[in-house]
Amino acid sequence: MFEHVVYNLAQVLFVVALAPLAQGLVGRLKEKIQSKQGPSVLQPYRDIWKLLHKEEVISEHSTWIFRFTPYLVFAAPIFVTLLIPVLTRYPLFFAFMGDMLGGGFVLALAGFFTALAAIDTANPYGAMGASRTRMVGFLAEPVFMVVFFTVSFVAGSTIPYIVQAHWVNPPSNFFEPAHVLLLLAFLMLILAEDARLPVDSPSGHFELAMIGASKSLEYSGRGAALMKWAGSMKLLVLVIIYLNVLVTPWGLASGTGVSEIAMAALWVALKVIGFLLVLVYIESSLAKLRLFRITEFLGAAFVTSVVAMVTRLAGV
Amino acid sequence: MLVWLHSFEALIAGLFLLVAIGIVAIRQMQALLRLFVIQSLLLASGATLISLATGSPHLLGVAAVTVIAKVAMVPWLLRRTVRRELYGRREVVQVLNVPSALLIAAALSLLAYLVAGPLIEAAPVPFVRTQLPIGIAGILLGGYTVTVRREALAQLVGLLALENGVFFAALAIAPDLSVLAELAAAFDVVVVTLVVGLLTRRIHERVGDTSVGVLAALRESD
User: Fold this and answer.
1) Do B149 and B211 form a contact (C-beta atoms < 8 A)?
2) Which of B102, B110, B130 sits opposite A316 (nearest CB)?
3) Which of A14, A204, B133, B149 is deepest in the core (most CB within 10 A)?
4) Which among A118, A116, A310, A291 has a CA at the least distance from the CA of A199?
5) What is the value of ipTM here, to two decimals?
6) Chain B residues with CB inside 8 Å of A175's CB?
7) Where are the domains of chain A?
8) 10-residue mean pLDDT series, chain A (316 residues)
9) DSSP secondary structure string, A209-257?
């Protein structure tokens, strides 16, 4: 029991500590592909450190929502991390506190408050970004629901640990058509949800074209640091759910020994690096979609997930 | 072993359906042709898997003929005859916008499952459960592609995808179908491609456009 609590906290630490590194890696690799030098992979840590030591400026017209949001947004991925299999195959202490739907709600709550905070300061770009994010969000929502229901229907549970075990146990489960189609739909969902390239350009600096980035433009100092850190954590949490529960449900620790946990951490890190390479490839080879083409992108994701559901319900 | 074959075969069926839906909605001409090639490859690998499972040598012949006719010959012929259409890099005009076309495509695949339900009950052959509904979905989606597209070449690809759907459904129902039947059908496919390709080129030379939607009236004189 004691070990389970400790490992649960260890996996939170794993995500919190390594999330900026993952983001730095993506930034560096993208610049490398463009034949540029690129910032160090440690740059996000330096940015966060610098921002934490700067003075925070808050508009006097803003309300408590603006001040409260960075803490909530920072806490949301940590809560989700408690629920998902990051390092171990067996459920840890908090695993049954909430299921995948619960995790989705927590992330959606953070998104909701981010949108409110963006409108709160009356910065026009903030409201524009917030409304666009909501547009992408409500297009992504049906995909999320269908993916979620299909996954839980296939595995017979909504707890991510049990879903993960379902793909591993008879290995032929892994090649179910529903599963492979869900992988594609979920990948498109990650790209949309995290404001990645075919949907939004995360490294763009042009406010009029921003979708995701313009919501936290008004933050400075500690607030900005927390928002930045939370953004990279959200990406890492989504990627870990995708990899550990759906794509590569292998390599997690099955015992309680510290060495096994360390091995699992190494494996997860390798898997994440592999996924980031794919992400960088996608982001470097695709152009940003026009705003009204996003419906097509997410429409394709929706149809993919519906096909997955159909092939499953027909009793393959 | 058989369990593995079944799940791989189901996977191929799922991908086949996805590609069929992609053929309905994708915008670029070349990507459309590539999707058709992928679909034919999936058809061939499905045939190979079923022949491994049922021990029917005919299906290996079907796979080989499919690869030769649809993966090699059709793209080659189209590149020869309608090079300009294919490499024009323009977007294919559609009657409907992409999201509604996709939604209707999803509804059609549901319909295919509904239609196939009683048929599956009637024919308890091992692979019918996965092959038949997805094959019927392939037929419906191919026909839908022909109606929803406004360009001659895209309509041709829809027609060929329809033919793929027919064979995908047929693989499970008649695993001992002789190679001769598939050979005849594959030959037809190649000839149809050639005829449509040449016709499209001719129309392009005379009219300057092959958007079927625009060509609504006959021209009496030159």
Assistant:
1) no
2) B130
3) B133
4) A291
5) 0.77
6) 4, 7-8, 10-11
7) 2-313
8) 84 91 91 88 92 88 89 93 86 82 89 90 85 88 88 84 81 76 88 82 76 81 91 92 85 81 89 92 85 85 85 66
9) G-SSGGGGTT--HHHHHHHHHHHHHHHHHHHHHIIIIII---S-B-S--
Distance from CA of B110 to the nearest CA of A (A): 7
Cβ neighbours of B55 (radius 10 Å): 9
Which ranges constitute the DSSP H helices of chain B?
2-25, 29-54, 57-66, 74-81, 83-87, 98-122, 128-148, 152-173, 179-207
Task: Quote the percentage of chain B above a pLDDT of 90.
Answer: 10
Is the CB of residue B94 less than 8 Å away from at least one CB of chain A? no
Q: Which of A146, A173, A310 to mutate to test the interface with B (most CBs of B within 10 A)?
A: A310
- Give residue-wise pLDDT tens across range B130-150: 788 889 999 999 999 988 887
- Residues of chain B positioned with their CB less than 8 A from the CB of A173: 7
Residue A158's nearest CA partner among A83, A93, A89 is: A83
In tens, the pLDDT along A14-26 reads 999 999 999 999 9
Q: Does B107 touch chain A (CB under 8 A)?
A: no
Q: Where are the alpha helices (DSSP H) in A53-195?
A: 64-83, 100-120, 124-155, 160-168, 177-193
Q: Which residues contact A159 (CB under 8 A, 6 or more apart)?
A: A91, A95, A96, A99, A100
List CB contacts of B146: < 8 A, sequence separation 6 or more: B155, B158, B159, B162
CB-based burial, B30-51: b 16+ in 10 Å, e otherwise: eebbebbbbbbbbbbbbbbbbb
